[in-house]
Amino acid sequence: MAPVACEFAIPSRPKAISKESPLSKKPVYTLVDELPNKGLTIMSLKALDFAVPGAWNNLTGFVNTIKEVTGETDEALIKEIGDRAITLYNDKSEGYQKALWLYQTVDSASSALGTGMIANKATENISFLGLINKLTPKPEKAQSFDLTVKLVVELVAFCQINGIPGDSIGDFLGAVKDYGGESLMRMAALVCYDGLVPLGPSFAEKGLETLKQSSASDLDHNKTFKGVKELIPGDRDKGKLAFITESFESVQDWMLGFVGDRGLTQDKVVTSLSKAVDLSQDKLEYLGAFLDVGTNYYEHTGVQTLTRRLVERAAAEV
What we know:
It is built from 15 helices and two strands. The protein is mainly α. It folds into two domains: 86 residues, no CATH class; 198 residues, no CATH class. A two-stranded parallel sheet has the order 1-2. α5 packs antiparallel against α6 and α9 runs antiparallel to α12. The chain is globular, with a radius of gyration of 19 Å. The chain starts with 27 loop residues before the first helix and ends with a helix. The N terminus is likely disordered.
């Protein structure tokens, strides 16, 4: 079938997302059209297929997304749905742009070097060893903060996209149990790459313990938290710390159940990832930093989730 001729169409050559470029300033159709089909982010997500088999399809392209989500083939209707989706995204009274900002900012803020120096590199085998001297493993406390803040970003972004209060922990708990597709893949990556790999099997316990033993001042020294704090519910940093703690504790059982139900271990995750990345068993303490620098899985799958929800709503409204 010939490509749909729509005003929002752009050249289809994929470009990797740069952590230094604020995607929120781009049209939503550009965000989806520029999602890459290769690179370390894609490799790392595909490496988790064993944990969530068949759950994730790297859906890229605005028109492709409309077709996939709605099943529509009529070009005029596809354009009408696309235009409505664009209008919804551009409406600042809606939460779509805030959700995108959260997804992209939490990825950028958690980067060990603040740069995507290897995010664009796409090869059959990406060398990990060559970057060792440029990376510094994060202290366990900082890694625990990153994990807990990313979890809360998922909760708040979910609320923004669905038009419900940003502190709706109960609504999120009900929804995450039914997550699928790119949303489930994002949570799988969170559990594996921000939990199991850097912190081990007791990652959830370590995350919660870190929060309960920390002060608001401790949290404010964490770059990931500082990047997204303005949209985290709570009065000042103390209130935000309390909200992060309550949220993480509430979702802890789901995360542990996810690991247990799938028999996930640090070794299984690393073994699967090593098929795409040149890993050394004696350098695993650096792996978390490597993934922080080289991937933007929250942003990538977040754009996909955001677009899917926009298209679903737009299709229902046209």
